[in-house]
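Standup notes
- DV: blocked on the single-chain target, sequence here:
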Amino acid sequence: MAKIISCKSLGKQPVYDIGVVQDHNFILANGAVASNCFNKSHSTAYAYITYQTAYLKANYPVEYMTALLTASSDNQDKVEKYRENSQKMGIHVDPPDINRSQKDFTPIGDKILFGLSAVKNLGEGTIDNILKAREKGENFQSLADFCCRVDLRVVNRRSLETLIYCGAFDKVKANRNQLINDLDLIISWAQKRAKEKETGQLNIFDMVSNGIQNNANNQSKFDQEPSSPSIADFPLPEKLKLEKEYLGFYVSEHPLKSVKEAAKVLSPINLSELENQRSKSKVSAVVMVNEVKKIVTKTGKEMAFITLEDISGQSEGVVFSEAYEQIKELLVEDNHLIIWGRVDHRDDKVQLIIENGEIIENVKILIVKLTIQQAVNQNYQQNLKRILQENSRDKTKAKIPVIAIIGIGSQQKFVRFGQNYWVQNEFRAISSLESADFFVYTSPLMSVAK
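- DV (later): unblocked, structure below
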């Protein structure tokens, strides 16, 4: 490559955008070598695009995020990222709906409706067939109605399962387990009806049903559709797990939603906030374990890399050997944990070095009840502080949060103690506090949250 030795101003000259086929180095008429000759018009154009993008995001946030989601429909990671960003902006993304969803994501008021093109296992031909069938008539009334109106040679069983599991039929019938259980019966029945229609055959029930419908319009032609015995819907954890398996992420609800209020008591951060934390800073987070990769170090000890998730997004966690020995039984996929650790920034990547953890449903809270007189008494305050600190010496093992309830009845006020005052052993802490005339007890975190 040519090396520029010196530059000399030639004054003001007209400039043009120059397209260079191979590289940006070429010989000028005077024999000088011009290198990387991108002029100001490029930076001006990029600045203008940046301005337009910022303007659209600020003034038309729903439409802007809808466009981003649509443009990324074939990239599951990007769809999840933009969906999370939408939530942070206060824009809810509704789950797929077989009667409303279009091929692309659609802005509806202050919400975004999920586009069918971003649903796994749905090809373009399948989506076009569904939309074409819907345009020809009214909304789909049932799974049987749907199967009779689409071409089951295009919309196959796998596509139907995906639509059910991801919640696209929830507005038609909310019991996903029942729909899956009915699927084989309905597909067989719909295929038989389609074959009879092609050969011009009609059975007596169709004739009677059609006749009544034409005259009185009070009986559905699908009254005779088959169904299996009634069964209960999937339990919520299994329902959400299947939803994520077929859609790629949770849309209707997040498994950690039930502990969201409880998490406030523990004062954790969201995983999306990790990158804003200083390196080596101590944090806690309420998370769900998505994946565990156990490895053996050169010294023969075990450690693990784990993928964590909360309502705000995903992050990577590292559990080194010493911590792994303490909490390895907790590192199971789908477990809900509160974890403690430190933030690590490395190579433009942020991760959480996990030092300890506990299953969130097993966490207890130590509750100290104080009268207003006790709360303002300096001796009581110092005594309470001393006892809690004595029972909280090893911070890596102190897993029991402490809350004070001040006052009585409607005048009660809750005060949460910082993590430095969490205790290790509830029985020892209770004994010490009761000996000092404090009224104290423990309660499961989840019951306190409710």
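- Follow-up: The chain has four domains: 14-59, 119-236, 263-360, 363-449.
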